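lol ok so funny story. i was supposed to be doing the assay writeup but got distracted and ended up predicting the structure for this chain instead. priorities right. anyway since i did it might as well share w the group, maybe its usefull for someone
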Amino acid sequence: MKTYEIEKKYRLKDPKALRRKLRQLGARKKGDGREENEFWDFKGRLRRQRLTLRLRRYGASEKLPLKGPRQRQSHGVDKRLELEMTVDFLTARAILRAAGFKPRLKYTKRRELYTVGKTEVTIDSLPKHGWFVEIEGALPAILSLEKKLGLAPADAEPQSYLALVLGKKR
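and the output, tada:
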């Protein structure tokens, strides 16, 4: 069971160019489609603890991840607790409501999912916010792939999608 997510996110100017580079590196496309995200909380307790409980649906994948606060690592990479389980989306939603949880925010994005070596790469389009790419894996693998893909450290996006949608500044 993976308990920590280690990733770096970048603003993306040219998704077509990045897709070409991924193909050149032998990336394997694992998915492409719409991702629905619902953030749940119980009387603000999770938010106060800087935890997020999300109900997510991406294609046939339906999951309930709990994420902890971001811990900034070197080179702009984030590490955070991530516990996740596969669920039935509608049943999980009913359970959360019955337990007193309330939806805090919902958003959708377009997501493409690739693997390159031991990293996972996502290309996301978030309405009103633009294009992003995330690289998830071990720190050395993230930094190596960052260079191979021509991503500049200045392109790094420090905010989570949740913060972007809520309009928060970091």
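Residues 15-24 form the longest helix (10 residues). The chain has a mean pLDDT of 94.
back to the writeup now i swear
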